[in-house]
Amino acid sequence: VPALGAGLTWIVLRTSGAWPAPERPRPTLGDLVGGAALLLGVAAAAKGLLVLASSSADAPLPRALGVALLKKPPVESTFDLTLRQLGHALFPWSAFLPFAVGRLFRAPAAAQGAAAGLDREAGVRIALVVTSALAYGAFALLAPHAGALPFSGPALLAAIAALAVRDLERGAPSSRALAVGCSVLAFVLYRDLVLSPDRALSVFSVDKPVFPKSFEEEAASAMRFVLIAFAGLVALTWFEEQPREIDRGLRAWARRLDADVRAGAEELARIWGGNLLFLLIVLEAALVGVGAMIFVGKRIGWGTVARMPNHLAAYGMNAWWALPLLLAVGPVVLIAVRDAFRFVVARASVPRALGTPLAGLVAGFALSFWYYPALAAQLSPKEVFESYASLRKPGEPLATLGVRSRAAAYYQGGEVASFNDAPQAFAWLAASAAEGSADSAAAPGARRWLVVKSDELPRLNSLFRKQHGRNLPVLDGRSSQIVLASNELGGRPNESWLSRVVLDEPVAPANPLDAMFDDQLEVLGWELTDDEGQQASSVVPQKSYHLRTFFRVHRPITGNWKMFVHIDGFQRRYNGDHAVIEGRYPMSLWQPGDVIVDDHELKLEPNFTPGDYALYVGFFSGDARFEVTRGPEHENRIRAGVIRVR
């Protein structure tokens, strides 16, 4: 790519008349270098295409190709795959770069008015555009065959952004289109990274990444800060040019602000001959009416209003004052922020264009010292090993399950026992230290520690419960990927997520039941809660609730069952088929005596009219249902009770 980029740039400059004409009609050193680069680049590209065409995923990896080919190419098209990866990997600069590329096609600010040809900087611009396009072309060509790959052109894109900033510093006109467009594109990318946070791992060129759920909330907060800081500073920088004079003193600024607000109000009253202002007044009257209707409907229990989701009802009751307040205060706040930025630039005596690299610096600082370290703590075993070092006592050995032994040796400073099989790891954990030849340095009966990959935790917990009747002690459960377990809690709380769904103590559900599936699984009862965990006596359509069903295991469960929830009545049915505990703790791992809690989120459709509906629960596998051998039932469905809809 570099050689071909240099060669093509030489051709463009040579054929455009920008290349300086030699005093004598003979090739210059630049011609020789450009021609050699072109030949080298074409030869390398031809060889690469030939190797790619003659290679397959089943054949040995060709060293000349430099990438491993996939047997099953990605489903996405080349365009979607590569642009999506770059957009998310380069966030937030990916929101600025498309506009920076467009600014490259303007003549350099210092060269405007030049009589003929392009100067040296124009040649640099051509080289950046050509080489960046080639880098992206190679990236897109290999993506369908090799999946996510590192992009070779970040330095070129950084240079493009730097030239756009440099032009603004040298007097190029500002761009409101860039300010608004960059903010909108940054918001779109931010929404992508919040709704699908695993896309942030595109920066590491990872295929099918797994993002820790426990980090999603903090990740959204970090990305929100990056969005506000970057988009805000870029918009302030590019929206206007720095005025020659600013207000001297707070009073002068307040007088001008008052004049601007009055002028804006007068202009609003003149738009469309005053019809826009009249339309806003009519809209405000309608919002007052809607708010009053919802308020009264909530108080008297009007069915339509009662079934309205809480967030929509809150919007309806508060829109009448929130929207006018936003329209009145919003412009004042924006003007104040703009004037504060003007003041800082003037007092600091720095170019206004400095706001763009400052935006990148703030965003980069947040990503480098907040987002990615916190994400690494979720994915890396480092913090788990640090917890072990702080909690252990002399003579207490450590082993790993599902974690690479090389990582353990790196963080632990020496070799540790490593297992890939849960039964072997459990046997080591449950044995006394005196029995293990590998632990001859440990004291007899010493506490043992195990670093466990989260995928292995359910199996290990089942083995531990079978022998000890309680959940496996987890002393560090902060990461959703790797946890620190032991054979003793040592007076500390159990941080295992399984302790919330596999209970050690009996429970008293709000709605007790006496029912049994095939003498294997007893249904203890159920309860209904809202999103805040409060008991709910009734439900409202289109609102989320949690149906918590409690079971006690009497015998090992035979069969691979899924659970269903039916809410029947008035010729309507809610059908809630789901894997118990979201499939994270399979029924095959349940041990006799276990008390299991299944938490199923349900939301009724809006066509559920007020009334009492029958609640049924059961299990199915294909067309078969788990047989009900005790308790009220209908078609092998346990009749659990009544749910009131209002």
If you compute it from the alpha carbons, what radius of gyration comes out, rounded to the nearest whole angstrom? 33 Å
- Give me the secondary-structure category: alpha+beta
Strand order of the largest sheet: 6-12-9-8-7-15
Distance between the termini: 66 Å
Strand content: 5-15%
Largest sheet: 6 strands, antiparallel
pLDDT average, as an integer?
85
Low-confidence stretches: 111-118, 433-444
Q: What characteristic shape results from the CA principal axes?
A: globular
Number of domains: 4
Tally of DSSP helical segments:
17
Percent helix range: 40-55%
Question: How many β-strand stretches?
Answer: 16
Layout of SSEs?
Elements: H1 2-16, H2 29-54, H3 78-89, H4 93-104, H5 120-146, H6 154-169, H7 176-195, H8 216-238, H9 250-270, H10 275-300, H11 303-306, H12 310-348, H13 355-379, H14 382-391, E1 398-401, H15 405-412, E2 417-419, H16 422-430, E3 449-453, H17 457-468, E4 474-476, E5 482-486, E6 502-503, E7 511-517, E8 521-529, E9 545-553, E10 562-569, E11 572-575, E12 595-602, E13 611-621, E14 624-625, E15 628-630, E16 638-645
Parallel strand pairs: 1-2, 1-3
Antiparallel strand pairs: 3-5, 4-5, 6-12, 7-8, 7-15, 8-9, 9-12, 10-11, 10-13, 13-14, 13-16
Helix pairs in contact: 1-2, 1-5, 3-5, 4-6, 4-7, 5-6, 7-8, 8-13, 10-12, 16-17
Keywords: Membrane, Transmembrane, Transmembrane helix
Transmembrane segments: 34-53, 122-142, 219-239, 276-300, 320-341, 353-372
Plain-language structure description:
The chain is α+β, with helices and mostly antiparallel strands and 646 residues long. It folds into four domains: 79-112 and 135-241 and 351-379, no CATH class; 250-348, no CATH class; 392-497, no CATH class; 502-645, Immunoglobulin-like, CATH 2.60.40. It has helices at residues 2-16, 29-54, 78-89, 93-104, 120-146, 154-169, 176-195, 216-238, 250-270, 275-300, 303-306, 310-348, 355-379, 382-391, 405-412, 422-430, 457-468; strands at residues 398-401, 417-419, 449-453, 474-476, 482-486, 502-503, 511-517, 521-529, 545-553, 562-569, 572-575, 595-602, 611-621, 624-625, 628-630, 638-645. The strands form three sheets. A six-stranded antiparallel beta sheet has the order 6-12-9-8-7-15, with no helix packed on it. The chain is globular.
